[in-house]
Write a structure and sequence with these properties.
The protein is of the alpha/beta class and 362 residues long. It has helices spanning 25-31, 44-60, 79-91, 106-118, 132-138, 176-193, 195-210, 214-234, 249-258, 266-283, 289-300, 313-322, 350-361, and strands spanning 2-7, 12-17, 37-43, 64-70, 99-104, 124-129, 143-148, 151-158, 163-166, 331-338, 341-347. It is built from 13 helices and eleven strands. The termini are far apart. It binds nicotinamide-adenine-dinucleotide (NAD). Nicotinamide-adenine-dinucleotide binds at residues 43, 45-46, 49, 72-74, 77, 104-108, 110, 130-131, 133-134, 137-138, 141, 143, 153, 170-171, 173-174, 178, 266.
Length: 362
Amino acid sequence: VKEIIVNTGRQKYPIIIEPHGLSQIGYFLRKNCLSRSAAIITDETVGELYSSRLMKSLDDAGIRTHLITIPDGEASKALEYTNSLYTALIETNLCRDDCIIALGGGVVGDLAGFTSATYLRGIAFIQITTSLLAQVDSSVGGKVGINHPLGKNLIGSFYQPKYVLIDPELLLTLAEREIWAGLGEVAKYGFIIGERFFGILEKNLEKLASLSDIYQVSEMIAACCQYKATIVRKDEKESGERRILNLGHTLGHALEAVTKYEYFKHGEAVIYGIHWAIWVSYKKQYLNESEVNKMTSFLRRFPIPSLPDIENTKCLLSKMNRDKKQTGNGLYIVLLKGFGKIQIEKVDDVSVYIEEWLDSIQ
Ligand SMILES: NC(=O)c1ccc[n+]([C@@H]2O[C@H](COP(=O)([O-])OP(=O)(O)OC[C@H]3O[C@@H](n4cnc5c(N)ncnc54)[C@H](O)[C@@H]3O)[C@@H](O)[C@H]2O)c1
């Protein structure tokens, strides 16, 4: 069992990383008097696989449960679904002393978290993360939210959960493509945390993807959560240091947007985004050729879809400009000056860098 404490100054909560943890959650919640009644929000796939195990654990601990299932996929992170969740919660009489448990990946976590932040002006929120992406990234930091027809994640809040459970064994049912997409976010941590962690990923990438050693997978997840927790402690609301975690995300988000969120998984687009950030860093002479080769050979091992034809870089650029993380006039990009050495700076000739990069990889 590993326990990581996330402390934002205003709030403090544990992330427990524990294989088989799902069966013990009821005991934990009861012991900590967290609530007598819980609404479980899950999606169809995860609900089918794991809701009965979770409900049994809660029942055994004397906690009443209400199961609410939403369809799989990004389309559920919408106001219509939030509203239908409010209706279900009101109908089950869920009150302030009760809690909402998100059982699922990032979609369920973001939607259930946003619902928890707003239902009755805020109700306790517990996250049981089931996808690799959620386990290494969205479980830490309290960003919750939904999409708007004009853009992704535009409506939301910072709302910290009371408790996060990461049970790496749940990943064994996750589709291979989702595992690799989650590893895309892990790769980001590899570059940011530094050479030692990168070396572990470089040596074991395919083994980690195969999930053959759950202990090693747990260690990897813990390293990512620990790092993110340290950053969130210093900068909960992303006004400074937390922007480091956007490595690969400015171009990544734009690639997702121009392909209408249908072509790439998030972590796959992030891999291209990191690749581009390495290219810009090289052009600015922040990285030497051997560093670039080491970094890009690693990224090439990811089995991700090839880049689709991008008609013009202007549309990519306009999506990058609309990234809500960009403030003011400039386009701030997270660059690398080596493993674990980050430089966030305003880049002017972004379209030139994109065109040159596209030429270089096609
Ligand atoms: N809040 C944050 O800090 C944060 C960070 C990164 C991403 N996100 C959000 O996360 C979302 C993407 O998350 P995701 O990649 O987890 O997608 P997801 O939640 O849609 O899960 C991907 C698919 O895997 C299935 N699945 C999940 N766990 C499973 C399991 N154990 N076994 C079998 N199938 C399983 C789901 O049913 C779904 O079909 C995006 O909406 C993104 O905006 C949020």
